[in-house]
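Contributing new records

If you add data, match the layout below exactly. Sequence lines come first and carry their own label; structure lines follow with theirs. Keep one chain per record. Anything else will be rejected by the validation script.
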Amino acid sequence: MAILDLRRTVKQYVNKADIRLLKMIKALAESYQDDEQELTLSKEQYELIDKRREAHLKGESKSFTWEQVKQNARNAVR
C-alpha cells in the first residue's frame, strides 16, 4: 500500500473515530515522537564514543575481525 493510500485510510478512520480511538491515536503519535527524540545521543555519549574510538585506533582496546564476530555469534547459539 502506497503512503498516500495509507494516509487516506488513516484519515478516514480519524474522521469517523470516537473519543477512545482518538485517544489511542494521540498516545501512539506521542510515543512515536518520544522514540524519535530518544534516538539522539547526548553530548556525554558522543564524548564516550570518541574516547573509545581513540583507544581503538591506538590499539588499547580489544577488537575482532568480522570472521571472529561471526564465529563468536555461531558459538553463542550452540
